[in-house]
Amino acid sequence: MQASLQGIDSQLAGFVRALRAAGASASVAEAIDAARAVQLVGYADRETLKSSLSVALAKSEEEKAICDEVFELYFRVPERGQDADQPADGQGQGGDAPPAPRTGDAEVDALLDLAEQHAAGDRGAMAAALQRAGQKAGVDDIRFQSQTAYLTRQLLEAMGIRKLEQQLQPQPGTDPADADLDGDGTALRQTLAAARARLQRQARAHVEQRFALFGKPATEAFMAEVAVQRPLGRMSPADMDRMKTAVARMAKRLAQRHSHRRRITLRGQLDLRRTIRANAGHDGVPVTLHFKHKRVDKPRIVAVCDVSGSVAAHVRCLLLFLYALQGTVADLRTFAFSNRLRDVGPPLDTLPFDDAMQLILKEVGGGSTDYGQAWQDMYDQHWQLIDGRTTVLVLGDGRSNMTNPRLDLFGELAARAKRVVWLSPEGEGRWGTGDSALLQYRPFCTHLGHAATAADLERAIDEALSAYG
């Protein structure tokens, strides 16, 4: 979400952008509250500013941690090399040092003043100059680390370093050997060279800081989007790490979307007939309104996952979705099987996801796949969970090693449930081939589709939750 921040000062607007890039959902209204807070407390007192922005922009402990982290990075004056702890070239050592030479060019001399102030420990002027030049050069739009060198140069150009560099060049017709004999000229060139080096270091540090704030999150978001669209069977370990963040955001988006739908349907539609009849004694003036209320069932999902080796990557992603939806879907039960069906909700509720997944694969993943036995276990132990409000979500390839698919039990399950959604990691061309019983299960499914990517899983879960709207 990049809602407009027009009317908010550029420094605060940049901070809100960085906050959003880091994952906090700072709204425009909250940004306006933050601007009012800044008007009251100003930028001078760092701790007061930090606390005020945190109160205005953070809505949870997680967002408060993000806000504090981004604040430290955004409002920190970047340091590089010796600038962090000591002045360079003997500058700033006390009042006994002779005044540094000047060029007579106002722009160049202003840069020399910036460098000297920074060397003496006064870094505020340099930070302000870098901020202004960075906005002019578009440094906050950095997206890739490879842009660092280019944007550093653009920032320096915006600060006016070209004139300083021209002063360092020998004048036409001047013998460099003669220039070296000129003490004042040598001192001036040393001052100019030291100032240029300091400006270059600080400009690069500023760009690197901006990459950490804006570029790195954008790069990670791009890579996460690539991972979401990548076939689940070809996921690398790095992709799975990104998937955790991406799936958490997708689950949060689903939760917000469907909770909003439930809120807006609470009041119902105006019942015109009942309203007119109730207000007949008021000459038809609708003093009392009556509404038609449509009953909205709360989502109840029973997920049944084949965890055999052929679908391991796909079920890992689905379980990651269900793990992220814990607490959002009030009635969510999760089962896994290779042959015998097991309730895997407790480990998903109580353990970190990686530990829960490892335990599930260890305890449930072994053995020869048998869908018929899984439906028998569901019938014997958990049949009461299936009723007219239940969506049964099945993830599996339907390959049951030529065992009895128990279509009788699956048909009865489908008749009891609100919907049956089956997601297959195999493409439609392979359904019914070999030991696949998918085409036999198909008539009983409300929806049978190919789930190749995390985006496919999101759409399927979205459709399942939409049935309760």
Strand and helix map with partners:
Blueprint: H1 10-21, H2 28-41, H3 46-57, H4 61-74, H5 106-119, H6 124-137, H7 148-159, H8 161-168, H9 176-181, H10 183-229, H11 237-264, E1 269-270, H12 272-278, E2 291-292, E3 300-306, H13 312-325, E4 331-337, E5 341-343, H14 345-350, H15 353-364, H16 371-381, E6 390-395, H17 407-416, E7 419-424, H18 438-441, E8 447-450, H19 454-466
Parallel strand pairs: 3-4, 3-6, 6-7, 7-8
Antiparallel strand pairs: 1-2, 4-5
Give your account of this protein's structure.
By secondary structure, the protein is of the alpha/beta class. It folds into four domains: 10-74; 81-87 and 101-227, no CATH class; 258-264 and 297-466, von Willebrand factor, type A domain (Rossmann fold); 268-296, no CATH class. It has 19 helices and eight strands. The chain has a six-stranded mixed β-sheet. Helix 18 links the parallel strand 7 (419-424) and strand 8 (447-450). The chain starts with 9 loop residues before the first helix and ends with a helix. The model is unreliable at 81-95 and 262-266 (pLDDT under 50).
